[in-house]
Amino acid sequence: MDGFTSYKTATAEQLPAARAVMDPFHVVSLAGQALDEARHRVQ
């Protein structure tokens, strides 16, 4: 899953026993974005 809220919501409705996971690409991408935002706030 790419982390988009609508996908998670739809999956939870249709497959309530399924476990949501994120692929490593999106995890690293989101972490990089959060780090950049924090860096900009500190500067």
TrEMBL record:
InterPro entries, per database record: Transposase_DDE
Domain of life (superkingdom): Bacteria
Domain Transposase IS204/IS1001/IS1096/IS1165 DDE: 1-43
The protein's name: Transposase and inactivated derivatives
Species for this entry: Actinomyces slackii
